[in-house]
Write a structure and sequence with these properties.
Elements (H helix, E strand, L loop, with lengths): L9 E5 L4 H12 L3 E6 L7 E3 L4 E5 L2 H8 L3 E4 L3 H13 L4 E4 L6 H13 L3 E3 L5 E4 L3 E4 L8 E8 L2 H10 L5 E6 L10 H10 L5 E7 L4 H12 L4 E6 L23 H10 L3 E3 L2 H15 L1
Parallel strand pairs: 1-2, 1-5, 2-4, 5-6, 6-7, 10-11, 10-12, 12-13, 13-14
Antiparallel strand pairs: 3-4, 8-9, 8-11
Helix pairs in contact: 3-4, 5-9, 6-7, 7-8
Length: 294
């Protein structure tokens, strides 16, 4: 089992015929993802050859769903077109939209995350690496060959740290790894993923990666305290970040004592989460806990 994405997921790629879309569609297919179509109104009716698979291009998400039964879309369109791409996918009734695009204006993200939620579309991102259920499906840009299937769930604001923890725990493996993105507004939160992993019988432990800025990690800590029975291990990026400066992600900005790494670490530890001081140390905490459970 996995959360959000399984071997049965049928994936469309909005922007498949662009440079990034082509590159990552090829990688997704190589990872076993059932990519059933691309979406580009100007190239509808064509097919794109990915070696052992010819993928049709549809004029709209609705056409792709009607023809293939797709239930996931991965969005690789430029920032200016992201809002209309997500709105189109939500209107078509897609179950899961994964928005890889970075640099989207915040007011657009507010609009399309709200729109998707109102129409029952689970949205991951924007500005995220996507998600992978190793050995089953990969929707986005996460490298598929750095880990294996296992029983650890991972939710992270940071793409780079997603990859590092996947590699550090490659001998353990993962049920699903979800990169939720580090923008100020995202469609899926730490709490959403914690709830999904708590309900997944094939996830035994959850790794939560946060970073400075905002209060998402503090809210996640309260949720863990009240609702999560499985072990949770955490890591917070940004202990050395200077106050008042955005660090990498648009949402990673500290103002006074609000949003600091120390405050987040203390909130998580108060909820029973073991928090590592480095990514490697965080991985070791996972190994220690799994050893204690065997």
């Amino acid at each position: 089992m996995a959360v959000y994405l399984t071997k049965d997921s049928k994936v469309l790629v909005q922007g498949m015929t662009g440079g990034e879309g082509m590159k990552h569609t090829r990688r997704m297919i190589a990872a076993g993802t059932d990519v059933v179509g691309g979406v580009n109104p100007r190239k509808a009716g064509r097919t794109v050859d990915f070696g052992d698979r010819a993928v049709p291009v549809f004029g709209s998400v609705a056409d792709g769903i009607r023809s293939t039964g797709a239930d996931v879309t991965v969005v690789f369109v430029p920032p200016a077109f992201a809002k209309s791409a997500v709105t189109e996918a939500a209107d078509a009734g897609i179950g899961l939209a994964v928005v890889i695009t970075e640099g989207i204006p915040v007011h657009d993200s507010v609009a399309f995350t709200t729109y998707a939620k109102a129409r029952g579309t689970r949205l991951i991102g924007p500005n995220c690496p996507g998600l992978i259920s190793p050995g089953q499906s990969n929707a986005g840009i996460i490298p598929a060959d750095i880990t294996k299937p296992g029983r650890v769930g991972l939710v992270s604001k940071s793409g780079t740290l997603t990859y590092q923890l996947m590699y550090e725990l490659r001998d353990v493996g993962f049920s699903t790894c979800v990169g939720i993105g580090g923008d100020p507004v995202v469609g899926t939160s730490h709490i959403d993923c914690l709830a999904a992993f708590e309900d997944d019988p094939d996830t035994d432990l959850v790794v939560l990666i946060g970073e400075i800025g905002g209060a998402a990690e503090e809210r996640a800590a309260a949720y863990v305290r009240d609702h999560v029975t499985k072990p949770v291990v955490g890591y917070i990026a940004g202990f050395t970040a200077p106050e008042g400066r955005t660090m990498g992600h648009a949402g990673a900005i500290v103002s006074g004592s609000s949003g600091t790494a120390q405050a987040k670490k203390e909130a998580l530890e108060a909820a029973g989460v073991r928090v590592g001081s480095t990514p490697t140390g965080t991985a070791q905490l996972v190994l220690d806990l799994l050893g204690n459970r065997t």
